[in-house]
Amino acid sequence: MSFDSQYVWVVVCKNQKFHKRQNLFFGHKIPLGETDAIMPPPALDDLIHVRCDDCGQEYAYHPKDLVRIELELPDTFAPHPFFLQM
Ligand SMILES: [Zn+2]
């Protein structure tokens, strides 16, 4: 069993009401695509629409909403379409 974490771009789900009871302080993070410790953020020049993998709601996110965190991706992880183009 390996617990290697990797760097991932995430956004925090805007459906705070839904996720509040799960994670009061940080919100629910939706993984979008893999990265590394030094890669700059992808050049987004428009909002990206992301559907939450937990509550199922879709919201538009600004490029500045992207956050790099260390996360162990689940086997079921599927990158956001935008990150597939890179
Ligand atoms: Zn959500």
What is the helical fraction, as a range of percent? Answer: under 10%
Q: Measured on Cα atoms, how large is the radius of gyration? A: 13 Å
Q: How large is the count of helical segments?
A: 2
Bound molecules: zinc ion
Instruction: Give the strand content.
Output: 25-35%
Low-confidence stretches: none
Number of strands: 5
Give the mean pLDDT.
Answer: 86
What would you say this structure looks like, in words?
The protein is 9% helix and 31% strand. It is mainly beta and 86 residues long. It has one domain. A three-stranded antiparallel β-sheet has the order 2-1-5, with no helix packed on it. A two-stranded antiparallel sheet has the order 3-4. The longest helix is centred in the first third of the chain and has 4 residues, at 16-19. It is globular and about 35 Å long. It starts with 5 loop residues before the first strand and ends with a helix. The model has no long low-confidence stretch (mean pLDDT 86). The structure holds zinc ion. Residues 13, 15, 18-19, 28, 52, 54-55, 57 line the site of zinc ion.
